[in-house]
Specification:
The protein has 383 residues and is of the alpha+beta class. The chain folds into 3 domains: 86 residues, no CATH class; 216 residues, no CATH class; 53 residues, no CATH class. Helix content is 56%, strand content 7%. Helix 4 crosses helix 11 and helix 9 packs antiparallel against helix 10.
């Protein structure tokens, strides 16, 4: 069959963080899982959807990142920073031996980097526009501050110990490489990063950088769902930002990075926005979930999107793929019938003829012929 769709697997959470949000990865004609345009990036096609999803989620990478994120952030936030003895010891190391402090921190960051990013086979040009732009702007900011351009240069352990600038540049670059790595593969964080970065006001950044950076943290905090969101993580991020901004050199790096960042390249585009619409834990662009669900329904109607779902038969244990026009079918049918009632009464049209009317099989008044542009009406009404 020429137009037969070949499925290469499921993508959990492709459409959001609610029920039935998995997508079915549609294989390319040559059997490839992803699309790699010459201009860069990695995209996958989900069956029934006209928008391409950025990135190729791989379970082994997502699981590996979970351990790495725990090592970097959870251990620091929940164990080290909550133990005053550890905090005092780290502070004394920083005061008494700055070189040893930065060397130890470099070993810690490099350990995580070497077990995640360094093992990934993704080519630099296969990263998507968001992460490529973040890297570009960050490397320039690091170079402006420390005069170290290529963080992957073959610095020896002795170089890192002797030269604090090399140590700082290497720490910041490896840390950002890891951040970009999980932004590329974890859409929950990627969409949030895009959402907040498009709110960046560079004019305010120049007049009061500290206030503007903390304002961006507040956007993340206030848009998270208070019970099921990640507000606690952004509260911790805001606290870290307060301390980091006391360092003149780190503050300059962050400000230069944000000033260099091309907002048009990192903000949510049309396809990104579509995949944010069924996410209940975060109010993307400040819009409620109900507003976004209506927006998604409108887009699905216009684009003719279809949804697919796995269903397992209890008797046989066999699993099959079934198609759904949308997840709000029952409500939409009820709304559609309610809209028809006054017109049916006015023109004396029986309900059994509605499906034929809207599909042009029966000629009637224009008010009824133009009543609906919804596809597959005869299936929706089940008349």
């Amino acid at each position: 069959m020429e137009n037969q769709i070949k499925i290469g697997g499921t993508v959990a959470g492709a459409y959001g963080d609610m029920e039935r949000c998995e997508g079915f990865l549609e294989l390319q004609p040559d059997g490839a899982l992803a699309i790699y345009p010459l201009k860069g990036g990695t995209f996958i096609k989900l069956a029934g959807c006209s928008y391409l999803f950025k990135g190729l989620p791989r379970n082994e990478i997502v699981e590996g990142m979970s351990n790495a994120k725990a090592s970097l952030f959870f251990v620091l936030r929940e164990i080290i920073l909550k133990d005053w003895v550890a905090v005092v010891a780290i502070f004394l190391r920083f005061i008494l031996s700055r070189k040893k402090f930065y060397f130890g921190l470099h070993l810690y960051i490099a350990m995580v980097y070497n077990r995640t990013v360094a093992k990934d086979a993704t080519l630099p040009n296969q990263y998507n526009q968001l992460t490529r732009e973040i890297k570009r702007a960050w490397y320039k900011a690091v170079w402006l501050e420390y005069g170290v351009g290529e963080f992957m240069a073959d610095f020896t352990t002795r170089d890192v110990i002797r030269d604090v600038k090399i140590s700082k540049a290497s720490i910041l670059s490896k840390l950002m490489e890891f951040v970009c790595f999980f932004l590329e593969y974890d859409s929950a964080y990627r969409f949030r990063a895009q959402d907040v970065l498009e709110n960046l006001n560079k004019k305010k950044l120049k007049t009061n950088a500290r206030k503007e950076i903390l304002r961006l943290c507040d956007i993340l905090i206030t848009r998270e769902h208070p019970k099921i969101g990640m507000a606690d993580k952004w509260l911790s991020l805001k606290q870290v930002a307060r301390w980091v901004l006391f360092s003149p050199s780190l503050k300059r790096v962050i400000v230069n990075f944000l000033n260099e960042l091309a907002i048009e390249k990192v903000k949510l585009d049309e396809s990104d926005w579509y995949f944010c619409l069924r996410r209940s834990q975060y109010a993307f662009r400040g819009k409620s979930l109900d507003e976004r669900l209506k927006e998604k329904q409108r887009i699905d109607d216009e684009k003719g999107h279809w949804r697919f779902q796995l269903r397992q038969h209890l008797a046989t244990g066999q699993t099959e793929v079934i198609s759904l026009y949308d997840e709000n079918l029952t409500r939409r049918i009820a709304d559609f019938r309610a809209e028809l009632q006054p017109l049916m009464a006015k023109y004396g049209v029986a309900a059994s003829a509605v499906a034929m009317l809207v599909n042009g099989e029966i000629k009637a008044a224009p008010a009824i012929q133009n009543l609906s542009t919804l596809p597959k009406v005869e299936n929706m009404l089940k008349i």
